[in-house]
């Protein structure tokens, strides 16, 4: 477990910035009330076995007691670095993104299921959409009752969405909460490793 | 003098009639007399001071005349009176005042106002006769003659008797003469004008030449004559201009042989057109002179309003649009009214003038860099478009359909061609040509507005309108950026910096359903920038802005309107505008600076009409509105509370705010503590707070608000919710109207309200204190005032009593003093002898 170096930090922040915009500040400056300290601590990013964790400082201190090979996970895993050095966000960071999302898409109840099976969001399934989304922006996807379902990358701008036919793709799927069920084995394995 | 004259005038009608000319006969003085007078100036001077009138009256009492002579005299007098009457009659015939009213039905009143006032003025200064009695012109003229003669006579006499000051007299005389001359020429010109106008109106075809004569009057040196000429020409043109556009015959046509009538008609039309052209040129030339500005603008506006279809409309339009942003109120209002009527009565000109006018306005705005009076853009609001116009898809679809049809037809034709032989093809072509020609002719003759052409014109108009609007928006954003760069060095002039923004925004709101989808993105971007202009939300304090809160709110409203009217299918969440509204609510200051109506409208459109919100956002707004309603007037807080209730009804989870446990429990989300200063509603963590404001509000001095607040706070437990039918706007208006008559100390009213509380919000809103019996009130008031008067009376009497008492006291003191003095003197006296 170690702090991110500069290159890794920019990679992580750039990725998160796509989704949250200026709210990235809130993620970094978020006070943590964990631990025995009266003064609220900070959250920080830690890299452990190619995975990036979002952890409170007090937890980091206490985690030093655990040997590195034995430490399976700490705090919230928000993503991982691939072998090529790219950073990918994982579904676990959804809550963090959803609280600070800049661009949102709400899904109609009928198309929720389809999205939860890792399909892209089609225009027909669009319940509501934030204006001024540009193609390539990170979008957090909600159900109509404001439950975060996942996130993805916008394929079309909000303006273009109006003219699209119902079968066109609006948001490219990246992660959804269906993964918790679909990839149950995989994540168990990961933790066991 | 004037009075005596008036008396005399009255006496003229009495039986032994006094002809005023009689004095002149007597004036024939013999040389001897003259000599005598000259020699004995000392005691003959009284002659000049004689009251000739009274003398003549005495003399003409016809006492010492024989019967024959008497008869002759009477006859003579009668003849004279008759002559005078005839004179009067002839004058009356020429008088424009009495001659014209036949035509005044169409609103042509200028003759009167312009002819009477200057004449009266001249009359007064002309013969120094300040008779207040109103006289008809004829009488006045007769009197003028008389006074002239008198003046002459007096002048003669004075010249004879007093040679001391002849120069002065002459000067006065010359002045009088000059004035009379001027007046006479004015009079004749006026009469001439009226005659010409009447003749033209009576028979325009034969008298068409006199238009040029009338046009000559407009080149006169006298201002009032020029004005009169312009106005009478206006009246004439308005009446005789035909209902079609005149097309001058081409040379080829001129060469053709035509019948007499056609020739006459052509002559008539060409003369009319050239005269009209000359008139317009004169008008436009005079427009630059400030004296004629009003008259000219009035003429131009009336012409444009009456004959928008006629030739030279462009120059008229140009002049009107030029003056549309004038700083002169009268001129601007006239121009605006004209343009508006042009827009509303499109049948008169088939819509062409509308396109031109809108184009001109757009250019005008561009030329003036958006620094114009708001009225000049507000006129665009009175435009009207067909329902299905703004949607280009429809048009495109139509075109496509047509293309398809054409293609189909072509295909058919082609197939036919393949099948048929050449001759047939030729025949078919001939037929098609014929058909086209016939169709074209029919179209030209039918004079029904072509649907497609109309559409084309309307879309052209629309594009010009939006061009104007977008220009204004862009200019506003640029100027605001520039001013923020200047860092507030220029004092922010409130709305003065962008006067056109308000009408532009309202226009955008009105025509929002017609905006092309491609523009919406840009438009929303502009609006966003403008709306964020007012607040320095992101901690950037250097963003000193001159946008008022109302303007920002208007921007938000327009953005929502645009979105809503265009995108029924796609539900777009305008989050940035919500953030703006969330912050603007804090910056709102009631009173003169911000308008509560705008705020109420924004609340309605943004919060009440939207079907769903994020839970966090809704909670944040609920909390902020509750805070807001604590610190402003009853009307504003009522609007806020109505919105709040609406939000709570829609978002069931937000009712956690009504529970009495801070922290919010599981729903509070990631933010554990309420942050009242957060600028983003999503990050405020409002769900962790409690709506304690409602408790305070339930003790509000205004009964309506207190009941509403307590009903909201009981919402969680109440079984059946009564949905509010009232909108925040309505609530605001209700209370702001009521505010003037509302008296917070009225205890009876409060109890009234309490009794009615159960019946629902509709009755609550309708309660007002006017339902009290008026008779009783008046009785009470009278009693009250009686009491007051009694008290005053009492005071006065008491004061008098005090004064008298004090004076008595003084008197007594004085007595005492005098007594003591006397005593002393007595004593001293007594003492003296002793000494």
From TrEMBL, chain A:
<dbReference type="InterPro" id="IPR016686">
    <property type="entry name" value="Ribosomal_synth_fac_NIP7"/>
</dbReference>
<keyword id="KW-0690">Ribosome biogenesis</keyword>
<feature type="domain" description="PUA">
    <location>
        <begin position="103"/>
        <end position="178"/>
    </location>
</feature>
<keyword id="KW-0539">Nucleus</keyword>
<keyword id="KW-0694">RNA-binding</keyword>
<dbReference type="GO" id="GO:0042273">
    <property type="term" value="P:ribosomal large subunit biogenesis"/>
</dbReference>
<dbReference type="InterPro" id="IPR055359">
    <property type="entry name" value="Nip7_N_euk"/>
</dbReference>
<dbReference type="Pfam" id="PF17833">
    <property type="entry name" value="pre-PUA_NIP7"/>
</dbReference>
<dbReference type="InterPro" id="IPR036974">
    <property type="entry name" value="PUA_sf"/>
</dbReference>
<protein>
    <recommendedName>
        <fullName>60S ribosome subunit biogenesis protein NIP7 homolog</fullName>
    </recommendedName>
</protein>
<comment type="subunit">
    <text>Interacts with pre-ribosome complex.</text>
</comment>
<comment type="similarity">
    <text>Belongs to the NIP7 family.</text>
</comment>
<dbReference type="GO" id="GO:0003723">
    <property type="term" value="F:RNA binding"/>
</dbReference>
<dbReference type="Pfam" id="PF03657">
    <property type="entry name" value="UPF0113"/>
</dbReference>
<dbReference type="GO" id="GO:0030687">
    <property type="term" value="C:preribosome, large subunit precursor"/>
</dbReference>
<dbReference type="InterPro" id="IPR005155">
    <property type="entry name" value="UPF0113_PUA"/>
</dbReference>
<comment type="function">
    <text>Required for proper 27S pre-rRNA processing and 60S ribosome subunit assembly.</text>
</comment>
<dbReference type="InterPro" id="IPR040598">
    <property type="entry name" value="NIP7_N"/>
</dbReference>
<dbReference type="InterPro" id="IPR015947">
    <property type="entry name" value="PUA-like_sf"/>
</dbReference>
<dbReference type="GO" id="GO:0005730">
    <property type="term" value="C:nucleolus"/>
</dbReference>
<dbReference type="InterPro" id="IPR002478">
    <property type="entry name" value="PUA"/>
</dbReference>
<dbReference type="GO" id="GO:0042255">
    <property type="term" value="P:ribosome assembly"/>
</dbReference>
From TrEMBL, chain B:
<comment type="similarity">
    <text>Belongs to the CBF/MAK21 family.</text>
</comment>
<feature type="compositionally biased region" description="Polar residues">
    <location>
        <begin position="760"/>
        <end position="770"/>
    </location>
</feature>
<dbReference type="Pfam" id="PF03914">
    <property type="entry name" value="CBF"/>
</dbReference>
<dbReference type="GO" id="GO:0006270">
    <property type="term" value="P:DNA replication initiation"/>
</dbReference>
<feature type="compositionally biased region" description="Basic and acidic residues">
    <location>
        <begin position="152"/>
        <end position="163"/>
    </location>
</feature>
<dbReference type="Pfam" id="PF07540">
    <property type="entry name" value="NOC3p"/>
</dbReference>
<dbReference type="InterPro" id="IPR011501">
    <property type="entry name" value="Noc3_N"/>
</dbReference>
<dbReference type="GO" id="GO:0003682">
    <property type="term" value="F:chromatin binding"/>
</dbReference>
<feature type="compositionally biased region" description="Basic residues">
    <location>
        <begin position="1"/>
        <end position="10"/>
    </location>
</feature>
<feature type="region of interest" description="Disordered">
    <location>
        <begin position="401"/>
        <end position="427"/>
    </location>
</feature>
<protein>
    <submittedName>
        <fullName>Nucleolar complex protein 3 homolog isoform X1</fullName>
    </submittedName>
</protein>
<feature type="region of interest" description="Disordered">
    <location>
        <begin position="1"/>
        <end position="24"/>
    </location>
</feature>
<feature type="compositionally biased region" description="Basic residues">
    <location>
        <begin position="817"/>
        <end position="835"/>
    </location>
</feature>
<feature type="region of interest" description="Disordered">
    <location>
        <begin position="744"/>
        <end position="770"/>
    </location>
</feature>
<keyword id="KW-0175">Coiled coil</keyword>
<dbReference type="InterPro" id="IPR016024">
    <property type="entry name" value="ARM-type_fold"/>
</dbReference>
<feature type="compositionally biased region" description="Basic residues">
    <location>
        <begin position="401"/>
        <end position="410"/>
    </location>
</feature>
<feature type="region of interest" description="Disordered">
    <location>
        <begin position="144"/>
        <end position="164"/>
    </location>
</feature>
<feature type="domain" description="Nucleolar complex-associated protein 3 N-terminal">
    <location>
        <begin position="189"/>
        <end position="279"/>
    </location>
</feature>
<feature type="domain" description="CCAAT-binding factor">
    <location>
        <begin position="553"/>
        <end position="709"/>
    </location>
</feature>
<keyword id="KW-0539">Nucleus</keyword>
<dbReference type="GO" id="GO:0005730">
    <property type="term" value="C:nucleolus"/>
</dbReference>
């Amino acid at each position: 477990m170690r702090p991110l170096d500069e290159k890794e930090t920019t990679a992580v922040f750039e990725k998160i910035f796509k989704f949250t915009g200026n709210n990235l500040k809130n993620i970094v400056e978020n006070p943590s009330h964990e631990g025995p300290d009266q003064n609220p601590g900070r959250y920080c990013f830690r890299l452990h076995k190619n995975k990036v964790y979002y952890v409170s400082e007090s937890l980091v201190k206490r985690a030093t007691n655990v040997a590195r090979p034995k430490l399976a996970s700490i705090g919230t895993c928000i993503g991982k670095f691939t072998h090529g050095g790219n950073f990918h966000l994982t579904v676990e960071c959804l809550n963090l993104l959803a609280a600070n999302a800049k661009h949102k898409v709400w899904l109609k109840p009928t198309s929720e299921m389809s999205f939860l099976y890792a399909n892209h969001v089609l225009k027909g399934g669009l319940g509501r959409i934030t204006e001024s989304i540009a193609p390539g922006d990170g979008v957090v996807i909600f159900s109509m009752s404001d439950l975060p379902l996942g996130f993805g990358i916008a394929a079309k701008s909000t303006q273009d969405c109006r003219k699209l036919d119902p079968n066109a793709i609006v948001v490219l799927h990246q992660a959804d909460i269906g993964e918790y069920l679909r990839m149950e084995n995989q994540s168990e394995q990961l933790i066991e490793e | 003098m004037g009075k005596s004259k008036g008396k005399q005038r009255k006496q003229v009608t009495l039986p032994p009639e006094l002809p005023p000319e009689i004095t002149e006969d007597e004036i024939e003085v013999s040389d001897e007399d003259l000599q005598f007078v000259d020699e004995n100036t000392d005691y003959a001077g009284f002659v000049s001071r004689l009251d000739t009138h009274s003398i003549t009256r005495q003399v003409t009492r016809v006492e010492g005349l024989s019967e024959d002579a008497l008869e002759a005299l009477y006859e003579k007098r009668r003849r004279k009176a008759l002559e005078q009457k005839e004179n009067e009659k002839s004058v009356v015939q020429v008088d424009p005042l009495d001659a014209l009213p036949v035509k005044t039905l169409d609103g042509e009143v200028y003759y009167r106002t312009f002819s009477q006032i200057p004449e009266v003025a001249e009359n007064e200064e002309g013969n120094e006769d300040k008779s207040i009695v109103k006289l008809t012109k004829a009488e006045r003229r007769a009197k003028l003659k008389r006074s002239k003669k008198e003046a002459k006579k007096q002048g003669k006499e004075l010249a004879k008797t007093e040679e001391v000051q002849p120069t002065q007299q002459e000067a006065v005389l010359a002045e009088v003469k000059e004035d009379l001359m001027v007046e006479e020429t004015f009079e004749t010109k006026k009469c001439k004008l009226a005659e010409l106008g009447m003749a033209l109106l009576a028979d325009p075809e034969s008298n068409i030449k006199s238009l040029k004569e009338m046009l000559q009057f407009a080149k006169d040196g006298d201002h009032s004559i020029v004005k009169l000429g312009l106005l009478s020409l206006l009246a004439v043109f308005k009446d005789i201009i035909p209902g079609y556009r005149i097309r001058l015959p081409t040379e080829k046509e001129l060469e053709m042989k035509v019948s007499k009538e056609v020739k006459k008609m052509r002559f008539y039309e060409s003369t009319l057109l050239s005269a009209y052209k000359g008139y317009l040129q004169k008008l436009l030339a005079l427009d630059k002179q400030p004296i004629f500005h009003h008259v000219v603008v009035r003429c131009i506006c009336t012409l444009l309003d009456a004959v928008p279809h006629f030739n030279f409309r462009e120059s008229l339009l140009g002049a009107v649009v030029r003056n549309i942003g004038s700083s002169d109120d009268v001129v601007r209002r006239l121009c605006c009214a004209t343009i508006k009527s042009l827009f509303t009565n499109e049948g008169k000109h088939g819509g062409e003038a509308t396109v031109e006018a809108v184009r001109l306005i757009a250019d005008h705005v561009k030329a003036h860099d958006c620094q114009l009076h708001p009225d000049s853009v507000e006129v665009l609001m009175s435009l009207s478009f067909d329902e299905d116009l703004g949607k280009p898809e429809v048009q495109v679809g139509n075109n496509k359909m047509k293309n398809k049809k054409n293609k189909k037809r072509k295909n058919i034709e082609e197939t036919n061609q393949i099948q048929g032989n050449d001759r047939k093809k030729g025949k078919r072509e001939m037929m098609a040509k014929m058909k086209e020609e016939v169709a074209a002719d029919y179209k030209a003759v039918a004079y029904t507005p072509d649907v497609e052409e109309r559409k084309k014109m309307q879309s052209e108009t629309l594009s010009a309108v939006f061009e104007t609007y977008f220009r204004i928006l862009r200019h506003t954003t640029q100027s605001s950026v520039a001013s923020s760069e200047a860092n507030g060095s220029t004092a922010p002039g409130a709305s003065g910096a962008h006067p056109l923004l308000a009408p532009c925004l309202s226009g955008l709101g009105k025509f929002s359903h017609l905006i092309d989808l491609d523009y919406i993105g840009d438009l929303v971007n502009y609006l966003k920038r403008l709306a964020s202009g007012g607040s320095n939300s992101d901690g950037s304090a250097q963003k000193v802005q001159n946008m008022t809160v109302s303007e920002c709110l208007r921007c938000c409203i327009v953005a929502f309107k645009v979105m809503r009217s265009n995108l029924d299918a796609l539900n777009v969440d305008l989050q940035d505008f919500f953030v703006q509204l969330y912050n603007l609510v804090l910056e709102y200051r009631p009173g003169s600076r911000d308008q509560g109506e705008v705020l109420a409208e924004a609340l309605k459109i943004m919060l009440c009409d939207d079907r769903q919100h994020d839970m966090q956002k809704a909670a944040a707004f609920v909390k902020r509105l509750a805070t807001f309603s604590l610190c402003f007037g009853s009307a504003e807080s009522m609007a806020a509370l109505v919105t709040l209730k609406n939000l709570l009804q829609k978002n069931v989870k937000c009712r956690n705010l009504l529970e009495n446990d801070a922290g919010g429990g599981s729903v509070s989300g990631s933010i554990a503590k309420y942050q009242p200063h957060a600028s983003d509603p999503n990050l405020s963590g409002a769900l962790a707070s409690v709506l304690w404001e409602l408790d305070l509000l339930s003790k509000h001095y205004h009964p309506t608000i207190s009941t509403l607040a307590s009903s909201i706070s009981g919402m969680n437990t109440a079984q059946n919710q009564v949905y509010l039918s009232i909108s925040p706007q309505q609530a605001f208006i209700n209370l702001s109207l009521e505010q003037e008559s509302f008296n917070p100390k009225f205890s009876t009213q409060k109890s009234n309200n309490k009794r009615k509380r159960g019946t629902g919000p509709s009755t609550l809103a309708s309660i007002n204190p006017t339902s009290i019996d008026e008779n009783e009130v008046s009785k009470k008031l009278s009693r009250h005032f009686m009491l007051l008067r009694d008290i005053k009376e009492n005071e006065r009497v008491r004061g008098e009593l005090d004064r008298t008492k004090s004076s008595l006291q003084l008197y007594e003191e004085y007595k005492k003093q005098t007594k003591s003095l006397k005593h002393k003197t007595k004593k001293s006296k007594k003492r003296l002898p002793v000494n």
